Amino acid sequence: MGWLLLCVVVTLIFLFIIIMVRTKKQQTRIRDKRTEPASVLIVVGSGGHTSEILKLVKVLGDHYSPRYYVVADTDTISEHKVREVEKMRENSGRSSDYKLFIIPRSREVKQSYWTSVLTTLRALAFSVPLVFKLRPEVILCNGPGTCIPICFAGLLMKWLWIQRTCIVYVESFCRVTSLSLSGKLLYHFSDSFCVQWPELVQKYPKAEYLGRF
Q: Whole-model pTM?
C-alpha cells in the first residue's frame, strides 16, 4: 500500500510539472534590485525554529515583499506568531504585504524515518503546486522538516528554467558541532548556507558564519 501511494504521488507531481512547462512560457525579466522588491517564501517550523526565523523576519527590509509564509498544518502556535509579527510591522508603518499558507507536516517529532518518507511525499504533493504558483525569488528556511519539500520544489523551478529562486538556509542556533538532518540534505543545494557557530565552518567550508541571530 505504501509503495502504491508513493507511485501515485510521484506520478502526479511529474504530470503537474509537464503541464506547467507546456502551458506556461518562461517569463524572463530582469528585476532592478535597487528599486523593485523581491518576493520571499519563509518556511516556519515550530518551537525554537519559529522563534529564530521570525527574528530574521523582523529585520527584513521592505524590499522583501510580498512575504509568503508556509506553516505545517499541526502548528497553530506558529501561525499565530506570524500574524503577530506582521501586525507589528503594520503598526510601525512598515510594509505588511504577506500571505500565509498551510501544508502537511513532513515529519513529526520522534517520527521514524521510514514513515516520514510517506509523510514527506504527501507534503511534497502540496508543496510543488504551491511553490510553482507563487514563484518566489527567495526561499528562506532554518531547518524544520517542512522546508525539504519546499526547497525541492524551488530547485525544480531552477532546473526547469521556470524561476531562478535563491535558497537561503540558516542553520539553527542549537547546532554547534554538527548540522541537522535538513542542513545535511540542503548543504550542497542551497545558494547561501549560514551557520551561527564558527566550529561548523571548519567542518563545512561552504557555510558562512554570520554570528548569532
A: 0.82
